[in-house]
UniProtKB/TrEMBL annotation:
Higher taxonomy: Archaea, Methanobacteriati, Methanobacteriota, Stenosarchaea group, Halobacteria
Pfam family, one: DUF4349
Domain DUF4349: 82-294
Coiled-coil residues: 164-235
Listed name of the protein: Polyhydroxyalkanoate synthesis regulator phasin
Annotated source species: Halorubrum alkaliphilum
Amino acid sequence: MDTKRLLIVVALASMVALAGCAGLGDGDDGAPGDVETTGGIEDDVAADDELDSGVGDESNLEASFTAAGADEGERAALAAERQLIRTGELRVTVEEFADADEEAREIVESYDGFVSEGARETRERNEREYVSGELVLRVPSDEFDAAMADLEALGEVERSATESEDVGEQLADLEARLENREAERDRLRTLYEEANTTEDVLAVQSELADVQSEVERLDTQLDSLEERVALATIHVELSEEPPETEPEAWYETGVSSAFLESVSGVGTALRAAVVGAAYAAPYLLTVGVPLALVGIVIARRVDLRSVS
């Protein structure tokens, strides 16, 4: 039992005690009847405590289903039923974006779906424009596979992926928690109507507001999850083929760009010469120097012969 409910029980128990003392002091002036009325509210509090300790236990789904009257067959059927959230992703290259976009919208409408989001972008390359865009489509889950196949036929498929998530347990948990909170809310409403003092009214009202807020939150979550199960989501990217890049003629290059490229070329040539010299140095030392010495000796002998 939480703190607020404990305060309610204590307040009502105090009221019962005060009423009993008043009945003993007044004798036969009808006080016993007042005690009996107050005792009825105390019984309701006890019943509410029993609800909180039994049906209100959110961690025990089996007890929740039992309190709701679900039999063994219903629980087995719920466990066997798969609640899938299905999503798909497509990237397709098309000849004309406008035609493909219109056809994609017609496909989703033919399956009783709708376009959730849409965007397009025009780009330019080599003074030629090409268009690309995205669509977020929602279709009934039982039509998901057929819709994916039709969308893949729009052009050349670059990427196709699908994903499924089973949320059956989440749905069952939300339904049980929502049912428990609704039962608790109904019990608090009964206590609110039977409260006799301002303090009791305010205490029950505060607890009732908290429970009502929880009921609305769970109800919103449940509706959102059920909607995602009922309608699959398909993300589609459509793009025209970008124009090929044409090589630029040398005379179309700007003057500054040409000069910088030339300087860069000179630097590259010098660096290549230095690297080449470094590679050739060992060979020059081991082969070139001895050959040079031999040449000098031969040249001197020739000179001496010519003199003599």
